[in-house]
């Protein structure tokens, strides 16, 4: 039973355009959400996070949007760059969240020069 | 130093062998984790150590035995593994407390033959 779902296994975007990666969750206890980026042969690297008390968090080219009622979050990358090509994992942790993080299956983003 | 270092990078072991995976961080993080990741699957939490004490064991079989000798080191002792245990084993660390991101090592690619 996947509690964090990333339904698009892959995404291709032209350099300079917007990349939108989506994530849905089912567990109402989740209240902190993270995005990790993973290059081949490396461990995941933290990218950006959002608490459930917010609906948007922005860090440079990366913005995460949270829609709690829809149990949906998305990561926007603008403008996309070839170096952004990686696998992006959505992750969630519950209230009082003891770092018991649940990961989605990941979306492979390819940014085409 | 913002690295989590895992050794070895690759390991091939027989089902009767005993081996250990090692993880080290010098960021002063007091929470350390072991994750297991199979191909095309999300990282799955195995163990969490907090202040060198085991705080979460996600019903992991006893053939996996974690150890935290001190605040910088985390080991995973392996004994009598099965071929289905072949996976990428990721170590991570984080600050104690809520809503903090984890720093991951690059993982140990384990093959059980």
Word description of this protein:
The complex is a heterodimer of chains A (113) and B (113). Chain A is mainly β and 113 residues long. Chain A has no helices and eleven strands. In chain A, the strands form two sheets. In chain A, strands 2, 4, 5, 9, 10 and 11 form a six-stranded mixed sheet that branches. In chain A, strands 1-3-8-7-6 form a five-stranded antiparallel sheet, with no helix packed on it. Chain A is globular, with a radius of gyration of 13 Å. Chain B is mainly beta. In chain B, a hairpin with a 6-residue loop joins strand 4 and strand 5. The mean pLDDT of chain B is 92. The chains are: A mainly beta (113), B mainly beta (113).
Key words describing this protein structure:
heterodimer; A: 113 residues; mainly beta; globular; B: 113 residues; 7-stranded mixed β-sheet; 4-stranded antiparallel β-sheet; 57% strand
Order of helices and strands of chain B: EEEEEEEEEEE
The structural class of chain B is mainly beta
Shape of chain A: globular
Task: Summarize the biggest pleated sheet of chain B.
Answer: 7 strands, mixed
Summarize the helix and strand pattern of chain A as letters.
EEEEEEEEEEE
The computed structural class of chain A is mainly beta
Portion in strands of chain A:
over 45%
Helix content of chain A: under 10%
**CA-based gyration radius of chain B:** 13 Å
* Total strands of chain B: 11
> N- to C-terminal separation of chain B?
36 Å
**Helical proportion of chain B, percent range:** under 10%
Enumerate how many helices of chain A there are, as a single number: 0
What is the tally of beta strands of chain A?
A: 11
| Cα-to-Cα separation, first versus last residue of chain A | 37 Å
Please summarize the sheet with the most strands of chain A.
Answer: 6 strands, mixed
